[in-house]
Amino acid sequence: MMPVALQLWSVKDVCEKDFFGTLEKVSEMGYDGIEFAGYYNESAQNIKEKCTELGLQIVASHIPAEKILNDLDNVISFEKELGNNYIVCPYASYDTKDEWKSFASKLNVACKKIEDAGMTLVYHNHHHEFHKLEDTYILDYLLEMVPHLKAELDTYWIQYAGVDVVSYMSQYDNRTPFIHLKDMKKEPMESTEIGKGVLDITRFVKQAENQGVEWLIIEQEAFTKPSLESVEIGLINLKQLIGGD
């Protein structure tokens, strides 16, 4: 079975109260790794030591675009100390092709600097990147304009945009070190625990395996239960769906 990580944005409400206690609970659930979405004023050294103690692999970290573009030296320094190899831009939104072109140009510069430091820059999509610039999806345009940029394809948002997830994934089989998995309620259309929604998660995972994706990353953004309970249900259900322990 492919290793499974948790995007900690899913449990940010409890991370804010007790970051390391939350990491302990995530480890106890059986997650293999974590993807950060903030550090809650902890040092890179302390976080690294805690993750080592808990046996949690550091898969990646979501870093706001503004920090990647405007404070990259400090970002690289922190991530190197943390032992993280993947810097993920989690969100960007612009209105015009010229603005996206400018953003891509800046990402090319950041990509080079991050590569020179021995790390990789990755972009995480939402649904708006499947609007078109003339006749091309914004996400395709970005990945074409920034050839060294990797993709963290969020399967939920691809589906939300009305695009076939598996056929889209297959276009980027050399550029997807990990994918985001979350399930979708039909009404209202929002995320839910893996296995509780309408998405064909098993099909997405099979495609991920076929194209050499290294990590499956569970994320959830809407809840009817406490967040920790939801992400534990998601992990249990994912393992049942794909035949894990």
TrEMBL record:
| Pfam families in UniProt | AP_endonuc_2
All copies of the Xylose isomerase-like TIM barrel domain together span 23-226
Q: Which InterPro entries match?
A: IolE/XylAMocC-like, Xyl_isomerase-like_sf, Xyl_isomerase-like_TIM-brl
> Which keywords accompany this UniProt record?
Isomerase
Q: A Gene Ontology molecular-function term?
A: isomerase activity
Source organism's superkingdom? Answer: Bacteria
Does Isomerase appear among the keywords? yes
**Protein name, UniProt field:** Sugar phosphate isomerase/epimerase family protein
Q: Which organism is it from?
A: Terrilactibacillus laevilacticus
